[in-house]
Design brief:
The protein is an all-alpha fold and 145 residues long. The protein contains 8 helices and no strands. The radius of gyration is 15 Å and the shape is globular.
C-alpha cells in the first residue's frame, strides 16, 4: 500500500517537474519554478492529505527503491535544466551532473516531508527561506543579478 501511494505522489511530482522543464523559459526561471513547485506540492500533501504524507515519510525512512528512483529522476531533470543554462550562457558551472546533485542536496530542507512538517509546526517562514535558497543556488550556478 505504501508503495502504491508513494508511486502516485512521486509521479505527480515528476509530471510537474517535466512540465516545467519542457517550457521555453530561461533555465534560471525553470529551476526557480521547479524547486518552488516541488516544495509547494510537499506542503500541500502535508496539509491536505496527512495520512499520505505519513506514508511518504515511512517510505523514506525505510529507504524504499521508489524514493531512490524519484530522487534520481529529479536530479536528472535538474541536470537537463542546468545544461540548458550553460548552453545559453546563463550558468557557469563545469559539471552539470555535480551541480544537479548539489542543487538537490541544498533543497533537502524544502523537499523532505519531515523537515517541511517541522518548519510548519514551529511557525518558521519556510517561504522566505525557499526564496533565499533559490537566489543562493542561482548565484552558485553563475547567474548574475
Amino acid at each position: 500500500m505504501i508503495e502504491a501511494i508513494c508511486g502516485r505522489v512521486v509521479n505527480e511530482v515528476a509530471q510537474i517537474a517535466c512540465a516545467i522543464a519542457r517550457t521555453s523559459a530561461p533555465a534560471s526561471e525553470k529551476l526557480n519554478r521547479l524547486l518552488s513547485a516541488i516544495h509547494h506540492h510537499g506542503t500541500t500533501v502535508l496539509i491536505k492529505e496527512k495520512r499520505m504524507h505519513d506514508m511518504i515519510v515511512a517510505a523514506m525512512q525505510e529507504n524504499r527503491a521508489i524514493i531512490k528512483a524519484h530522487t534520481e529522476r529529479l536530479i536528472s531533470i535538474f541536470e537537463v535544466i542546468i545544461r540548458e543554462g550553460i548552453e545559453a550562457g546563463e550558468f557557469k558551472v563545469e559539471d552539470p551532473a555535480e551541480a544537479a546533485r548539489a542543487v538537490h542536496t541544498a533543497f533537502t530542507a524544502f523537499f523532505h516531508p519531515i523537515l517541511i512538517e517541522h518548519c510548519l509546526q514551529h511557525g518558521e517562514d519556510i517561504g522566505m527561506g525557499l526564496r533565499e535558497q533559490v537566489r543562493f543556488i542561482l548565484k552558485a550556478l553563475g547567474k548574475s543579478y
